[in-house]
């Protein structure tokens, strides 16, 4: 009896392993086909998955039965990218993680971007949980209701296409000062700001002969060019932005801030920068030390704490915050009546 029970257990385990193995293989085939615009031969897929061709034929049929738009031409198989919506296989917690990302996107976006709305609607259609799916759809509607800036969408589309296809792009860029210049840029990376609803492109600027960061909302026009470029192998966007407070990679400086006991608990709750060091002060406050890429972006964050923060270093940041405080004091000063 015991031997029989062990045999049945082994059989059940083997069956489960086969089912899981097939599910994983179907996902791999689906992903592989989607990323092969010219299609792949059955022999290629069989070698990739480590199975025989007959198994691949059965897998392709299974994918079709699951709704994947499989095409076949001259011995090659592929997926119709235009009509394709991948099946999202997520558990509840993974779906919530996506919903949080969508909410952050909604908070970050101050305008209607049709591509964002379309992406969120597709996610909503593919999520397994109806509650989260319905809320994802609501987020899409919230963004859809915002004003449409067609010029920004065109610029973003052009820069995105240039980045994906490695084509140079001609932009007309209006600096914060109002100066309008023409630049030919090679997009290396797209990034969003965590402190403002804005998008940036980190690009090699032919005019300056160096990497520059451009705010896409300031690009008046963007035109794809026929010439191509190559991103250097040693360019790592995440290393490039590692010290930045936001998107600007400038000379690193040591920033030291002293927070009052009133806000210290809030400061301790979060990791504001990967380099931060927190030390408690005797009065119940705390001091925050970190190395950031320049002070331009961190300054507005420091100012948001008002009188509950004191800049200890660097001197330039301390002077700029002090000057800002003086000007605010003058702006809100009320003339006192004479005695």
From TrEMBL:
GO MF terms, alphabetically ordered: DNA binding
A Pfam family assignment: WYL
Gene3D superfamilies, per database record: Winged helix-like DNA-binding domain superfamily/Winged helix DNA-binding domain (1.10.10.10)
InterPro entries: CBASS_pafABC_assoc_protein (IPR051534), HTH_11 (IPR013196), PafC-like (IPR028349), WCX_dom (IPR057727), WH-like_DNA-bd_sf (IPR036388), WH_DNA-bd_sf (IPR036390), WYL_dom (IPR026881)
WCX domain sequence ranges: 253-328
Keywords, ordered alphabetically: DNA-binding
Signal peptide: none
Domain WYL: 155-223
Zinc keyword on record: no
Domain Helix-turn-helix type residue range list: 25-71
Ion transport recorded as keyword: no
Alphabetized PANTHER family for the sequence: PROTEIN PAFC, PTHR34580
Name of the featured protein: DNA-binding protein
Species of provenance: Kouleothrix aurantiaca
Higher taxonomy: Bacteria, Bacillati, Chloroflexota, Chloroflexia, Chloroflexales
């Amino acid at each position: 009896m015991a031997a029989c029970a062990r045999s049945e257990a082994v059989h059940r385990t083997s069956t489960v392993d086969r089912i899981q193995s097939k599910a994983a293989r179907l996902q791999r085939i689906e992903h592989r086909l989607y990323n092969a615009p010219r299609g792949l031969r059955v022999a290629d897929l069989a070698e990739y998955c480590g199975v025989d061709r007959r198994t691949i034929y059965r897998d392709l049929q299974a994918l079709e039965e699951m709704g994947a738009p499989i095409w076949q031409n001259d011995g090659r198989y592929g997926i119709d990218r235009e009509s394709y919506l991948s099946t999202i296989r997520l558990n509840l917690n993974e779906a919530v993680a996506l919903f949080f990302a969508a909410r952050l996107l909604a908070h970050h976006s101050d305008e209607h971007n049709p591509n964002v709305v379309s992406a969120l609607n597709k996610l909503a259609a593919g999520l397994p949980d109806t509650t989260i799916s319905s809320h994802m759809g609501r987020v899409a509607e919230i963004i859809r209701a915002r004003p449409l800036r067609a010029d920004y969408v065109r610029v973003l589309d052009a820069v995105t296409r240039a980045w994906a296809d490695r084509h140079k792009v001609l932009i007309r860029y209006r600096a914060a000062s109002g100066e309008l210049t023409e630049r030919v840029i090679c997009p290396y990376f797209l990034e969003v700001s965590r402190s403002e609803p804005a998008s940036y492109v980190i690009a090699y600027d032919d005019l300056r002969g160096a990497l520059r960061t451009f705010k896409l909302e300031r690009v008046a026009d963007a035109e794809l060019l026929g010439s191509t470029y190559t991103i250097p192998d040693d360019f790592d966007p995440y290393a490039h932005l590692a010290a930045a407070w936001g998107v600007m990679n400038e000379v690193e400086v040591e920033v030291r801030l002293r927070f009052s006991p009133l806000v210290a608990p809030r400061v301790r709750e979060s990791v504001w920068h990967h380099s931060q060091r927190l030390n408690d002060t005797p009065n119940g406050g705390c001091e925050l030390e970190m190395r950031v890429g320049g002070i331009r972006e961190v300054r507005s964050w420091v100012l948001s704490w008002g009188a509950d923060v004191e800049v200890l270093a660097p001197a330039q940041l301390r002077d700029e915050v002090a000057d800002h405080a003086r000007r605010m004091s003058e702006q809100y000063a009320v003339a006192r009546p004479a005695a």
